[in-house]
Specification:
- The chain has about 150 residues and is mainly α.
- About 55% of the residues lie in helices and about 5% in strands.
- The chain is built from six helices and two strands, in the order H-H-H-E-E-H-H-H.
- The protein has a two-stranded antiparallel sheet.
- Helix 1 runs antiparallel to helix 4, helix 1 packs across helix 6 and helix 4 runs antiparallel to helix 5.
Length: about 150
């Protein structure tokens, strides 16, 4: 079974939280931490990388926070996973040439194929899909006046 890193799960949960609890005001990181239990040290790092990647926009100031940079239906889980994978690659580079012949010619190609299939599925799943699942599961949004005018 594939295992997502904690940072990846935190990033998906944070973007989903921002989308699901969106209102006229941006969502503050402390609200995400309170609702999702994501440690702030991970959260701020992930949120800043998502802003740089164009998934989120940051709003400065005392009432600042984060908003989606695109419509929920235009942000896929693959977009988020790519951002975290790039973050992790910078801190933990793997040398492709290192390893045994079995690892290089058999295991790594299989792992790449499985990873590509997983990413293809993530590319078909949007934040809108997850918001719909949350609503169908009866999860209440903290912003009861939330309106989504996406077309």
């Amino acid at each position: 079974m594939f295992r997502l890193s904690r940072k990846t799960l935190f990033a998906i949960e944070a973007v989903l939280d921002i989308a699901y609890h969106a209102s006229a005001n941006p969502v503050q990181s402390r609200e995400i931490t309170r609702r999702q239990g994501i440690p702030r040290r991970y959260l701020e790092q992930v949120l800043q990388n998502l802003v740089r990647a164009g998934v989120l926009t940051g709003v400065r100031g005392p009432r600042g926070g984060y908003r989606l940079a695109r419509e929920r239906r235009r942000i896929t889980l693959a977009d988020i996973v790519d951002v975290v994978n790039e973050m992790e690659a910078r801190t933990d580079p793997v040398e492709e040439a290192d390893g045994s012949p079995l690892g290089i010619h058999v295991v790594r190609p299989l792992w790449r194929q499985l990873s590509d299939e997983c990413m293809a599925q993530l590319a078909q799943t949007t934040i809108q899909d997850l918001c719909n699942q949350a609503r169908d599961a009866g999860i209440e949004s903290e912003d009861s006046d939330r309106h989504d005018y996406t077309i």
